[in-house]
Every structure is written in structure tokens, then in C-alpha cells.
Amino acid sequence: MAKNGKMKKIVVIGEVLVEIMADNAGDGFKGPIALTGPYPSGAPAIFIDQVARMGQPCAIVSTVGNDDFGRVNTDRLKADGVDISAISIDPDRPTGSAFVRYRANGSRDFVFNIKHSACGAIHRNDETEKVLASADHLHIMGSCLSSGDYVDVNLRTARDVKARGGTVSFDPNLRKEILASADITSIVKEILSTTDLYLPSGDEILLLTDAANAEQAAGQLFQLGIQAIAHKLGATGACYYDQSQTRFVKAFPAQEVDPTGAGDCFGGAFTALWLRNEEPQRALTLAAAAGARAVSVRGPMEGTSHLKELERFMDEQQEKA
Fold first, then answer.
1. Which of 259, 279, 292, 293 is most buried, taking the most CB atoms under 10 A from its CB?
2. How far is 57 from 10, CA to CA, in rounded Å?
3. How far apart are CA 160 and CA 133, in angstroms?
């Protein structure tokens, strides 16, 4: 909660796009195939939609085209309670897109149009600056780090938020190969220096440390000023670390239909609860419930959940255990 008793406002800066999914598993897009979509998507958009469904004040800064793909996203985000006033409309470039097809082994083939789409750049205007100035908490996503424009705005906003007593969370979503770039490594180090809540997945917790395991990595990350870590472990579960405790929860059983967006739903749920000073074990369990519900639905944003839905799902699953 904010000092005045109001909930803290979470802002995210990043891509908004549509996802169009192949109906059947196979190898790429080398011939005519049946497709379903468009679904609202983009990691920042999925994250902030989950935040909104938790009942948390929130906004997203992005750009869409003047087209139906953009309206699919803005209509959905607005309906779920996201402040979309800082989503600009680009009159010349189309809304970003991702065509996705699963292979038989569960891996995926993508055809993206992001860099050269509307969300490839931020339109800086009065509405953008107003929303950024209203942030009590900034969430940074690694998916935007390949764009210099997004990096600059995220870093500037992170510094501003911290200067006025706010907090920052960071979901890296980065592979070691990407960190081979000296520029990206430098950017990640700067982001980590502002981060209060860190949300790595799998081996990401070891990035930029010389640790042999997650516990050692957590100790090194705390030395950077990070307050808490919610470590996503996929089908294994999730682990929480701060300087006084470690907590672990198993993943809930789920029929996996579409894993896209599950980590973003976990992150959105956990970040909102963390800002409300929710007890870590309960926050982690509800976030795991958000991830489990997300994978059971086709479409990257279709599995976002209201808090009461997560509480009911958690209770039902714990009764079965």
C-alpha cells in the first residue's frame, strides 16, 4: 500500500501485439495452414492485464497501429481495468504481431513483426509523461531490451520512480547468449542496480553472478540492493528469497494447452501481492495458481485471472492434495 492508504500504481513500458496461432502442430509456416486469432498479446501487456485483474491500479506505455489488431488489445486492456491513456496510435505502422506454431515436441516456431511495427518505438507525449510520472512502481521486462528507445525510457523512469520513493521489479526473460553483448550486459547491470523485486526464471537467477546455485546467487543479488526474489521454476514450482527467509511452493497440476504468458501471469500476480505486503508463502502460492490457470487456456492473455478466481483455485487444489 502507498503511504496515503491507496494501492500503489504499477506501470510497465513495452510491446503490445497480437498473436495468431496455428491450429495444428507442425514445422513452421511453409505452406497454407489453419490459424486462430488475433489474440491480444505481448509480455508487458499480459503482465499488466494480470495486474489489473488483481484489482491493482496500473497502466502501460506502448504504441499500436490504427487498425483492428491494435483495438483488440486496447479494448481488452481497458475492459480489464488497465489505464491505456499512454498507448499511442501510430498512423503509419501496423500493430505488432507474432505468428506461432507448436511443433510435436512442444517447441515453437515464430514469425514476428515487432521492431518495424507500431510498438517498435514509443511516442513521447503529454499522456506518456503523465502516466510515467504517476508510477509508484515500475515493472521492467527483458523483452524490450533489444530496443534502445524502450531501454532509455525504462531506465529514466526507473531512476525517477526510485528518486520519489517508489520501487522497481525486473523480469529478465534473457538467455546467456543474449548477454554475450557487452551493451546488453551493461544495461542489465544498470537495471539490477535499481531493482527491488527480481523475477528470474530457471537459470536466469545465475546471470551476472559467479554462483553455483540459486541460493548463492540470491546472496550475491541482495548485495546489489535487491529486496526480494521470486524465482520461477516452471513445472517444478517457485521459490521466494529475501534476506531473512526462503519459501518454496510446488507447481499446481494443470492440463497444459498453451504455456505462452504463464510467467507473465505469475509475475503480475506476485508483484501486485508483494506491493500489498502479502505474506510471501501466500503470495507465491497465488502466483503459482495464476501460472497454472494461464497454461490451461488457449491464447497468451486468455488465462489471466481475478484474485478471487486464484483464491478459489488455490483452495480447491489444496483440498484435493
1. 292
2. 6
3. 8
